[in-house]
């Protein structure tokens, strides 16, 4: 509905003679139902002169301009008829543009001779759109306005919890951890818009509980008990699938289990859901006592790791006594304005990764999961800190289970950083920060017609073929967004390039690319 309203509002400036009348500000009466729209050219009043070439810059009659009369252009898709002397919309799809007076007054596209009018229409339409959005924001409040725009400052949080008998040692800790997650966000800008709980056992999973009230969620979690199932594979992925299908976009999902996945055949389905449901971050917490067959635990943990990586989350393997410590380390990944600067996964070996940090980023944190590894971080000035220096010249390092967190000091240097990794086992690396500049994205295709544009595609683009990525960027006024080309130093989506000034903090841009997860902060 909002899109339809904005479309009509913006069309006024492109399809009428508002800017030809030398108006530089939006027409406020359009969005004020109690104000009249006056001085419209009469039905029998000629408004345009003939343009034989069909491509004249301004065909509005002089008397219409002098009398400050409003008019617009007729559009004919199946008929060329229009009232005598009236303007046409113009363009190849408008049959009336071939009838005298020929040509058209549409400023939808920049053409030779109409550049100034096109730019003026764009400026007026942009200002009018922002004026309308500000009015809606003032009436609805920030929280509901952001939800309307699909860019809620905080989305949902989901808890998928194993309630089998083997979790008897963990269930109390899991509850305490969940309470901490809920309480730490309550009343802040990061407070979730929705809470979802999905318990799973064997052979059952669910039922799902969803609420917007944190106290209701805490009460439901308090009812969980660890019974049945035994110390064997459980229905973990079935519970996760239920959470994924219900959770809003950009949700954080926490999975607590001490067992392998009995329903591992759902792995591909879960991967597809993660791709189609937008950046739902899944964090797995697998706790063990060491009594289970190591091969089985390792195999499923690798599957958990694959799913976590696909969502931008972490798969953390800890002993039962360290669960609370591990969740404390990972809790800050659900904060607002979080951006991913770098994310990599490797099977083993030695490699050096570089990442660019700029002055707009704060709370820079590195997360590494893996075992039997060493790493060294270096800043642009050449100062280094290794994994053996828990408090060094660059920041502080914490570790629990297979998880390492490196939090850089606030006085970090802008520029190109590097981290040298060496591991005998598979590992993941993720660099995050907080930034007021962020974006949401869709894979889209272009469509033609009277009003060409972009529409989201279903699923992911075909591998190996060019794709189009549409970014909606949120940031401060005066922001200039640019991206390096293929192979350039700022390239996170190869082959994609754009530059768009966002004078009012919100912009949208679509350009050919090759897919992939976007990232901000230090890249623009």
Task: Give structural notes.
With 524 residues, the protein is α+β, with helices and mostly antiparallel strands. It folds into four domains: 2-140, no CATH class; 156-336, Rossmann fold (3-Layer(aba) Sandwich); 340-434, Jelly Rolls (Sandwich); 438-513, no CATH class. It contains ten helices and 21 strands. It has a six-stranded mixed β-sheet, with helices on both faces. Strands 7-15-9-13-12 form a five-stranded antiparallel β-sheet, with helices on one face. Strand 12 and strand 13 form a beta hairpin. Helix 5 (171-185) runs antiparallel to helix 6 (214-222) and helix 5 runs parallel beside helix 10 (323-330). The model is unreliable at 290-297 and 484-524 (pLDDT under 50).
Q: How would you summarize this macromolecular structure in one to three sentences?
A:
The protein has 524 residues and is an alpha+beta fold. Helices cover 24% and strands 26% of the residues.
Radius of gyration: 28 Å
Number of strands: 21
The CATH topology of the largest domain turns out to be Rossmann fold
Q: What is the domain tally?
A: 4
- What is the overall number of helices? 10
End-to-end distance, in Å? 33 Å
Low-pLDDT segments, ≥5 res:
290-297, 484-524
Which class best fits the helix and strand makeup?
A: alpha+beta
Beta-strand content = 25-35%
Overall average pLDDT = 82
CATH architecture of the largest domain: 3-Layer(aba) Sandwich
Strand order of the largest sheet: 3-2-1-4-5-6
* Largest sheet descriptor: 6 strands, mixed
Shape assignment:
elongated
CATH superfamily of the largest domain: von Willebrand factor, type A domain
The helicity comes to: 10-25%
CATH class of the largest domain: Alpha Beta
């Amino acid at each position: 509905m909002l899109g339809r309203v904005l479309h009509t509002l913006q069309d006024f400036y492109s399809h009428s003679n508002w800017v030809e009348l030398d108006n530089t500000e939006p027409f406020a009466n359009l969005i004020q139902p109690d104000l009249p729209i006056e001085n419209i050219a009469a039905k029998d009043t000629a408004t345009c002169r003939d343009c034989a070439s069909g491509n004249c810059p301004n065909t509005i009659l002089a008397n219409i301009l002098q009398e400050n009369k409003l008019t617009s252009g007729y559009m004919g898709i199946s008929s060329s008829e229009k009232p005598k002397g009236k303007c046409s919309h113009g363009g190849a799809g408008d049959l009336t543009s071939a009838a005298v007076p020929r040509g058209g007054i549409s400023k939808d596209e920049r053409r030779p001779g109409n550049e100034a009018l096109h730019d003026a229409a764009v400026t007026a339409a942009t200002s009018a759109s922002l004026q309308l959005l500000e009015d809606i924001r003032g009436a609805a409040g920030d929280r509901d306005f952001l939800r309307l725009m699909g860019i809620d400052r905080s989305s949902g949080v989901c808890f998928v919890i194993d309630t089998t008998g083997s979790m008897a040692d963990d269930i109390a800790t899991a509850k305490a951890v969940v309470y901490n997650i809920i309480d730490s966000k309550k009343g802040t800008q990061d407070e979730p818009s929705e809470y979802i709980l999905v318990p799973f056992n064997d052979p059952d999973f669910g039922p799902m509980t969803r609420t917007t009230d944190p106290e209701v969620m805490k009460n439901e979690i308090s009812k969980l008990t660890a019974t049945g199932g035994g110390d064997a594979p459980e229905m973990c992925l079935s519970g996760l699938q239920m959470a994924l299908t219900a959770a809003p976009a950009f949700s954080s999902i926490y999975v607590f289990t001490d067992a392998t996945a009995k329903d591992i055949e759902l792995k591909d389905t879960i991967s597809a859901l993660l791709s189609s449901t937008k950046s739902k971050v899944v964090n797995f917490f697998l706790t063990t006592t060491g009594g289970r067959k190591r091969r089985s635990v390792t195999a499923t943990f690798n599957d958990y790791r694959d799913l976590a990586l696909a969502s931008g989350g972490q798969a953390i393997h800890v002993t039962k006594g360290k669960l609370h410590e591990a969740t404390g380390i990972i809790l800050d990944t659900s904060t607002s304005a979080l951006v991913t600067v770098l994310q990599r996964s490797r099977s083993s070996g030695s490699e050096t990764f570089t990442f660019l940090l700029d002055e707009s980023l704060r709370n820079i944190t590195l997360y590494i999961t893996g075992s039997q590894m060493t790493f060294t971080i270096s800043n642009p000035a050449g100062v280094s800190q290794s994994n053996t220096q828990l408090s060094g010249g660059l920041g502080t390092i914490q570790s629990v289970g297979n998880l390492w967190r490196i939090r850089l000091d606030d006085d970090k240097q802008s520029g190109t950083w590097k981290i040298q990794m060496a591991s005998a086992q598979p590992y993941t690396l993720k660099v995050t920060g907080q930034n007021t500049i962020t974006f949401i994205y869709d894979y889209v295709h272009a469509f033609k017609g009277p009003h060409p544009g972009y529409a989201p595609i279903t699923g992911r683009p075909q591998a190996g073929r060019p794709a189009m990525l549409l970014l909606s960027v949120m940031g401060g006024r005066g922001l200039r967004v640019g991206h390096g080309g293929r192979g350039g130093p700022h390239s996170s989506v190869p082959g994609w390039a754009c530059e768009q000034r966002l004078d009012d903090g919100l912009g949208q841009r679509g350009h050919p690319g090759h897919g992939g997860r976007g990232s901000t902060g230090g890249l623009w």
